[in-house]
């Protein structure tokens, strides 16, 4: 109510009193005049109260709209919170200055602490991940302490003891003076992506039938071993194995039987060699084994065990069959100081073993050069692949 409105009431009372007095003193005209004047403050009061009523109505409407918006925002926040809590994404926001942390409930699946404990003690965020590798934990702590934008990938076992791959991403928020006030971040479950990458790698580097390393993986492995052996003055051996009699078994009993036999050969080879040795399949019935840090005597013992193992009968689909291996071996650095020479010489030794009666092994020696072995198809296959490999192309381009 304005100051004018407050004054109208006593003025109106005064005019009523004057009109009453003049009506009894013989001045009816003055009495009527004062009654007429009463209409003016009455009109003013009406306008004032009308304005107040309109203002109150507008205020009630605004309050109603605000309540409606608050209710709508509350619902949206609830929906978003439920979404974040049930997605394979963990959201967090850390207010550095006030030491306040918000983190979604998804963290309970991978954290030592609950989301409530983390929010009560934000500094636990640096050491919250269950069963994490110490080096990865250092990377995460460093990421949070440096207050920079970045990401770290790590593996973790969840509450159900399942291995999961996660990626933590941080995005610092700066104030006007470029000081980092808040670190917002996500912890994303990238398990499916990681498994897909592993599957692609499996397809690229491993034989589909036997799960042994394929030609490409063997090339990479030989390149690494050659570099290490030269650096540390170690020897290593390359062993070629070709199955005699496999083509007859494959043609007689069918390709399905032949595949089962190759899978079993792969298992027997893996069971015969050392854990650190690499057994690979080149294709068809041809296999290769690479022995790092070995001696001629040790390779000879393994070759004997392979002959005995592979010569044992195979029985699938109620049919028994036999194959025998022919094995050629070359030793670094005695039989060659590069991959090409070692492969070529192991190939020569293998064909010499095949020609002298099969089911035997042969170390390469200079005397084999005098033999009439003029074709080495296994060597051609390997070197064709090596020539086309990325490693060979990179070296070739440099020169």
From TrEMBL:
It comes from the Bacteria. The chain crosses the membrane at residues 7-24. The keyword Cell membrane does not apply. CDD domains: GGDEF. Residues 56-83 form a coiled coil. Residues 234-366 form the GGDEF domain. Keywords: Coiled coil, Membrane, Transmembrane, Transmembrane helix. SMART domains: GGDEF. Residues 150-202 form the PAC domain. Pfam families: GGDEF. PANTHER family: DIGUANYLATE CYCLASE DGCT-RELATED, SLL0267 PROTEIN. This is GGDEF domain-containing protein. It comes from Anaerobacillus alkalidiazotrophicus.
